[in-house]
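A common beginner's mistake is to predict each chain separately and then try to dock the pieces by hand. The better habit, illustrated here, is to supply every component at once so that their relative placement is modeled jointly.
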Amino acid sequence: MDILHIVTLGIVASVLYLILKDLHGSFAFFVVLITSVIILFFVIQQLGAIISLLQSLGERANIDNMYIRTILKIIGIAYIAELGANITKDAGLASVAAKIELAGKVFILLLAIPIITAVIDAILGFLPAV
Amino acid sequence: MLHDASILFQIAGIGIIVALIHTILKQMGKEEIAQFATLVGFIIVLLIVVNSLSDLFQQIKSVFLFQG
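With all components supplied together, the output reads:
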């Protein structure tokens, strides 16, 4: 899908939202939700190519597969949390959106624990044994 | 399913029709049936939206989380 298609989709969605907002509020919210889902769907489909490039680069550089996999997982969590938080904020639940963002941050940190441990181990390996 | 904007127009059309039905039924004095029609339309739209949301989540899973 082209960038033109996505922009057109956004404009059409805003017009439909303006029409539906006065008629029925919840359907207007569904229009917003489905627009975000469609756009994100296509962005992520395109992102697959970039991800495979990243993976092949990492294999060429002999980086441990675990690190790349963790980073990709973190990016995925960030995308999902961002979508959820923005949709929830649009519906007017700012506090729930803040909690979703908090949960995303916590899970990202949780996934990063092996990497942090590896970094600390490397630093400790540099230090001379006392 | 998510390949063009037709799903968007589908939802907007269902919304407009449901609002129309709601207004007409309310004018006829059948408040309960109007509420019921709104509920049914809401559930239909919810079905469409949840289906596409699950498509998106599957896509994210297969791209980022390695089919996990």
